[in-house]
Amino acid sequence: MEQGMLTALIGPLLFAVLGGLYAYIYRPERRESLMATLVCFLLVGAYAYHKQPLEDLFLMLLAFALMVCGMFVHSLQRAAVQPGS
Asked: Are 48 and 8 in contact (CB under 8 A)?
């Protein structure tokens, strides 16, 4: 049962990626709460990695973190371009 955390987290993180991208693109008014939810998913994954450090789990969390950081930087850039909104 070495990959228990990986199999337990692959479904929720995949759902968070797909749902997060959809909500980020089509619901711009809810981006702040979406980013907070995605960071919470990332924290749960980090706790799981702390409990059971696996290379596959680390790579999955790294890809998820890069997506969340990219969305965060994009939202900050859009906020800087549109100060009146």
From this structure: yes
Question: How many angstroms separate the Cα of 11 from the Cα of each of 2, 71, 78?
Answer: 17, 21, 30
- Note whether residue 33 is domain-resident: yes
Q: Can you give the residue range of the structural domain that contains 58?
A: 1-7+28-78
Q: What is the pTM of this model?
A: 0.85
CA-CA-CA-CA dihedral for 63, 66, 26, 32, to nearest 10:
130
The tokens of 48 are what? 């799981």
Residue 34 belongs to some domain of the structure: yes
What pLDDT score was predicted for residue 44? 94
